[in-house]
Amino acid sequence: MKVYEIFFSPTGGTKKAADAVAEEIINNIDSSILEKVDLTDYNFDFSSLKIDKDDIAVIAVPAYAGRVPSTASKHILQIQGNNAKAVIICTYGNRAYDDTMIELYDIVSKLNFKIVSAAAAVTRHSIAIKYASNRPDENDIKKLKEFAYNTIKASSFLDDNKLNGNRPYKKMSNVPLVPKTSSKCTNCKLCAKKCPVQAIDINNPKIIDKTKCISCMRCVHICHCSAKSVNKFMLFLVNLALKKTCSKAKDYEFYI
């Protein structure tokens, strides 16, 4: 059988949480194979992904303003679940995940997956990186592995009434934080190649399409020469707005 680790993780935090869960499942199931599927890869044909009934899918996304990122949703909805078991993971930057978990549950359910468990995991905030900067930490990883082990033993499917979130979901909103490019740029084009929504011009990486940018901060995170950055005043305002809700560390939530 296969364990599919399906994740949308522009800056790496969501992948860390998904890695811990998927790898623990693999370690406890004989003759299983791990296959990783990156939802940020716009060149991948997600409609070709057909999960067999006996397989397990670990599907992880971050909360963007309390919702599943639209790009992640679009790609997940092309996958065929075929009544396979699924584990869903919602990550967030220590503020709140709002309706992300229940929305992810609904998306995955539409694909004929049988959801057995869910987790809400705190990871470093992708924009205001001083919040939850060390998450997931060693203790978080330990909890995720224990959750994964308990998931394997689960004998029933998850009741969505246990999950936090509302239907209808909160209105989708985009944070208007489009990174700028400094003279440090060496035109290596890495940011353009790795942008999940192709918002960066491959011929001139200094040009970013504001109508496509989802403020995921991947370009800022992966730039080898620190050429991409967010306006300092705007970043100050974001940090200030999040100070009250993000300063106190939140715990992980698990549902089985």
UniProtKB/TrEMBL annotation:
PROSITE patterns: 4FE4S_FER_1 (PS00198), 4FE4S_FER_2 (PS51379), FLAVODOXIN_LIKE (PS50902). Pfam families: Fer4_10 (PF13237). Residues 3-152 form the Flavodoxin-like domain. Residues 174-205, 207-233 form the 4Fe-4S ferredoxin-type domain. It comes from Brachyspira murdochii. This is 4Fe-4S ferredoxin. The keyword Oxidoreductase does not apply. Keywords: Iron, Iron-sulfur, Metal-binding. InterPro entries: 4Fe4S_Fe-S-bd, 4Fe4S_Fe_S_CS, Flavodoxin/NO_synth, Flavoprotein-like_sf. The keyword Protein biosynthesis does not apply.
